[in-house]
Structures are given as C-alpha cells and as structure tokens.
Amino acid sequence: MPSAEDTSVHQEPSVVPPTRHDDIAAAGSELIGGPAGRWARFGSGPLTPVRVVALVAIGMFALGMVQKLPCYNWAWFRGTSSQYAHACYSDIPHLFVGRGFADGLVPYVDRLSGDMAYLEYPVLTGLFMQIASWLTLTPSSDPVQQREQMYWMVNAGMLMICAVIIAVCVARTHRRRPWDALLVALAPALALTATINWDLLAVALTAAAMLMWSHGRNLAFGILIGLATAAKLYPVLLLGPLLVLCWRAGKWREYGSALLGAAAAWLAVNLPVMLYAPEGWKKFYTFSQERQIDYGSFWLVITQRTGRPIDVGTVNTASVLLMIVLCAGIAGLALTARHRPRFAQLAFLVVAAFILTNKVYSPQYVLWLIPLAALARPRWRDFLVWQACEVMYFLGIWFYLAYTTSGDKHQGLPQEGYQVAIALHLLGTLYICAVIVRDILMPERDPVRRDGSDDPSGGALDSAPDRTALLQVHPVPARHTAPAVEGPRVEWGTTGRTVSD
To answer: How confident is the model at residue 124 (pLDDT cuts 50, 70, 90)?
Structure first.
C-alpha cells in the first residue's frame, strides 16, 4: 500500500492535488510549470508538500518584514503620522518602553507609570513578551531606538517560528490535502499583520491543537487549547462547537478529556500569577470589559453615523447577546444538518461570530481565521475574495489614522472612506461564513468531502455514526464523482452513510 506521500504511476495520488480540482490553483501553477500531471509523484525527493509549505511561509513572512522597513528605519520614531502613512505600524516596539520591558520591570507584578497600571495581555503572551526582552541583548546604555529595533527583530524571529508551525500544522491536519496549507503560507493578510502584535502565538497553539485532535490525541488537544486561551481569549470558543459535535456523535469521553486538559493547562499557567499578583493578572479582563468602542467594529460605524456615543456597558451586553444568538444558530445548524458538519467549519463560524460582534477589530485579528479558513473552505477563489477585503481594511485603518493624526494636512482616508473599509471587512467575513454554511447544508459542495472523506480534522468524529440529531434525515448522494483515493471512503447514499475500503 503506497504511503500518503508516495504513489505508483498507475494510481491517482492519495495526496489531493489542488491544481486538478481548483481553477484558480491551476491558473496560478502556470508560474511554476503548470498543473500536476497524470504521472506526477508526490512526496518524492527533498521537497515534500510540508517542506514546501514551510519554506513558502518563511518567504512570505520575510516579505512582511520588508514591508515594515520604513517604520523600522525611522517612522516608528518620528511622531505618529508617518508609521500610519506607510502602513507599517506595530505595537511591539512601542510597548517595549510603554510596558516597562526596557526598564526591566516584571509583568503583572511591577506597577507601570501612565494610564495603564499593569500589562493588559494574558499571562502566556506576557511571558512571550518577557522572553523576547531577555533575548534582546542590547546594553541598557544603548539608545532607546536601537533597543526598540532589536526588540522588534527578536519578536519577529519568534513569531516567524509561530507562522511556520501554523502552516505545518494545517498541512498535516488534513492528511490528503497538505497543499491547502499554501492558503495560509501565501495569505497576504498574514504577511502584512504578523508582526503588529503577538497574536501568532495563540494561533500557533490553536493550529497545533487542531492537529492533535485530528490525530485522536484528545488530551493533547485540550492542553494546547488551554495554553492558547492563556495567550488569547478566542481559542476557548472552539470548545463550544466541539461540544455540539461530540454530543451528536456521542463522543462524551473524548470531549471530557479535551475539556479536562484545557482547564488544567489554563490553570497551570494562570494560577501562579493569579495568586501572586492578582491585580496585575486581572488587568487583561478588566481592560477588555472597560474598553470603549474601538476601530474596526460595526459599533464604531453606528456611533460615527449617528453622532451619538453608546455606553460601554450597553455595548458589552449587546455584544454578548448577539454572540449567544449566533452561537445558538450555529449549534442549531450543527444539530439539524443532514450530515454532521466538520469541526473546522463550525470552529470558523464561531470565531467569525466573535469577531463580527466584538466592539473592536484590530487588523491582526484576521490571523485567528486564516488557518481555520484553510481547513473549513479550501478554495482559492473564496479565500482570495476574503483576503482582498482584509487587505483593503488593513490599508483603510492606517490611512484613516494618518488622516486623523496629520493635523490640518488631512493626508489619508477620511471617516467615510474608513467606514467603507469596515464594511468590506464585514462583508468579506460574512461571505466566507455564507459559503461554509452552504457546504454544511449541501455537503456535496464541500471541497474536502468531494473525495469521499468525512471529517479529516475531526479525530474521533471522523466517520463516527450519529447518536443524536434533531432531524434524522439521511444525506443526499454527492453530485460529483469522487476521485480514486486510497484509504477509507465515505459513501453518500439514500440509506445513510457507510464507510468502505
């Protein structure tokens, strides 16, 4: 039996080549010789799909660093407007000084001067920032600008490792579709936003967790989700769709292991800081609650269009209620769909719902969705439409800030233009959500399931029979002929779903 990365010339490769099933991928492959032919061998030689994906991710990350050169050289240090006009802003060099790392202060323990009393990031992100400051091997006597540059460079190196981990984990999550990880590696928004903040740490841990779940390592998945939640809040949302899917499949033991691992890992990271420095530890949570309506949200559009501010308490309550409603709708979809949705599909929808209803949307938040999008809807056309909207938003927010900080010159994008950029971001995200919902309702349209697969990233859920479903309806036959693929194959028939070899 050939391996997943090798095949004889008389058989279709077990690795799904996107150039044979995706018109955009086929057109793009002309730059490197054209689509894979009938006799193509996959995984032979040193350039396996995973290695190619890793190299491409490094190359795109490096291009993103080059895009930050105007700021690295001078714009970060010459007022506020220049870094926005060049669209190369980053929190990293500014917070090196602003959060006490330049002075050797201990996060969460030492009180800061200024408006922010303590570091406003979760504990694991704070540790990441602290390690980067230890690795910034510049004497304290050096100019502050030089130390900020080195701190950004050290963080960029650490975040590049995270980016490679994300791409490799996505490549290995869907075993027959490693090339889908090129969606991550080549994502323009990843290159542009990777070094704005420290979000890639949580995204890397989440991608690794998805890989663990796909391989049936449920406890490891939970531990990684707990660690990811200790770095950023959004990863905990993945436990919601997993609960619904495990309920429908009757996989309670597997879910219990994941939940136990997540709780234990989160407590292991947070409890020492919580007990030793409670005021500093809770700053992230109080800051999130007290934060006013900020850039990128539809709430900001409402306040700008009406000219009336909205009380932060009202926004918090409304955002939570909207999120609950959307999550209830996603749960209803998962329980009533004719065939159980894939884990990655529901994960994307839940995280997207959080982004859409939140009172702030920083441009780097797109990183949360990129690996989930590659797993949930691996089609280049839809992915590039969404990415184009996100790139327009990336430019829109910086040019709007350039407009508001350039004084009487007003160089940049006025308020109305920025509102259009927000609308593009919202519409692009909603577009991907709509396509994923269509795939759930019509599984024969799902690119991942066209080869007969069920849920390659589902782990214990993959090919598991339904135990509980609100609507006991059999799936419809697929309208596309599945290519010859080795391994277990899902048959879509009128008498239900069967697995054959």
So the answer is: very high
